[in-house]
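Here we describe the complex-level prediction in full. Unlike the single-chain runs in Section 2.1, the four entities below were treated as one system.
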Amino acid sequence: MGQLVNPSISVDIVIFGFDGLHLKVLLVRRDSSKVENSLKSAQCDHKLPGSLIFENEDLTTSAHRILKELTGLSDIYLRQLQVFSDPNRIKRSEDLDWITKNYGVEAHRIVTVAYYSLIKIDNSVIKRSVEGETSWSDVQTIRQLAFDHKQILLTALETLTRQLQTEPVAFELLPKKFTIRQLQNLYEAVLGTELDNRNFRKKVLKFSYLIPLEEKEKDVAHKPARFYRFDKTRYLKEVKRKYNLSFIHS
Amino acid sequence: MGQLVNPSISVDIVIFGFDGLHLKVLLVRRDSSKVENSLKSAQCDHKLPGSLIFENEDLTTSAHRILKELTGLSDIYLRQLQVFSDPNRIKRSEDLDWITKNYGVEAHRIVTVAYYSLIKIDNSVIKRSVEGETSWSDVQTIRQLAFDHKQILLTALETLTRQLQTEPVAFELLPKKFTIRQLQNLYEAVLGTELDNRNFRKKVLKFSYLIPLEEKEKDVAHKPARFYRFDKTRYLKEVKRKYNLSFIHS
DNA sequence: AAACATGTCGTAAAATGTACGTTTATTCAC
DNA sequence: GTGAATAAACGTACATTTTACGACATGTTT
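The structure predicted for the assembly as a whole is:
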């Protein structure tokens, strides 16, 4: 039996945000000053926020802790994505150096548990984390990421695309008050398609959990749009109702 | 920083099978003879097949290895489910004893990566694994499992239910040649509903990837049903076609 | 031959999706 | 002010899919 030392475990989080037009992801710029033979290519020094796990705690708790450190918030949408465990996922010497410098550990192998998280982009995110400067990047323009983080991002994107069509996660990315147009822009940005506004309205306005507010847009050069909010309680009721009905039909 | 020893990592697999009427899951009976203060409750000594991971390999590879040991097959449907990492998920002294005896390791904490797998139940499964006797159990009748394996099973069931409605995974559970009735029985067993046979037929027979065969049932007390097979290539073509079309519509 | 279970065909109503025309409220340029 | 521009909001006709269920065919058991 090839009894080796246990791998280290890390948590990495794909944090999505939406600025009204484009889907964004929160990245950390790796601080090259810490590493001796500093990172060469300027394109390659961004990574997903994350951390090696030393604490004796549930990994979801660790992920929430990382989110709290970055945003100050603790009630953020978070979901486990997948484990990335390729033994060779971190093998480049500059990557290993960075880990040693940053965490003070000689890790021979790191298995990472990827999470993805949806936040309202207006929630203040700190400019500087323990890992380096943070910034929002447009998902479409990202070419390279450190380690296997590009692959993790792609997996997260797939999951988001699928989930957006089956669960009401869009509202995690929008402000509390939003217009139908904003909702549509989000769907168009993530799905990469144009949608017919008239049919989109008809569809979403049927949902009992989209509550129209009295408030309307201001200072726009057209008929001002009504604001709506998402009512989670009503959503759960509607889901339950559908679920019950499905047992009546033959 | 609470620098502790890295947790051990295990892989546990929920292996589903279908006997024509009921959804089954492959369980291992824990060998109590190995443990000094042997397991008391007879209901509690079943677990999911799995293994602690010592090898320096991708966890999916480990899962495939475990499946190969159990079934002799290597082309089995396998999918990562989720990580279970509660620090207290394994704390009972008899559980820790069993691990020590079975793996020769004093594990202080085990993080497990759960997989789920779908197999044709007629594929021979070995009677005795390194962990103990194996047997198929009816999913509906399972009350308790060792560790947090009941929770893992429930998560797998949820995933299977959802996946059955969006992807053609049913065919992984059925024999290569199957009747529409068998397919319907599977859906009814997993979804827990009765379906209208006439509408079910209409729906599935529209799929181009369900290929009718010449062969029919024999020795049945009614009109013998035609056999069908699943054509994966055609399925992929049909998916691609739909995907392309979705970009034509506005 | 009757009873039975299931396969097979068909059809009408309901629900949902698609395409697209029209009206309304606001700002801005003049 | 007046009209153009803009996007919200409303409406309508048609196509497609889903659901419910009637009627009949087929092969086996008793």
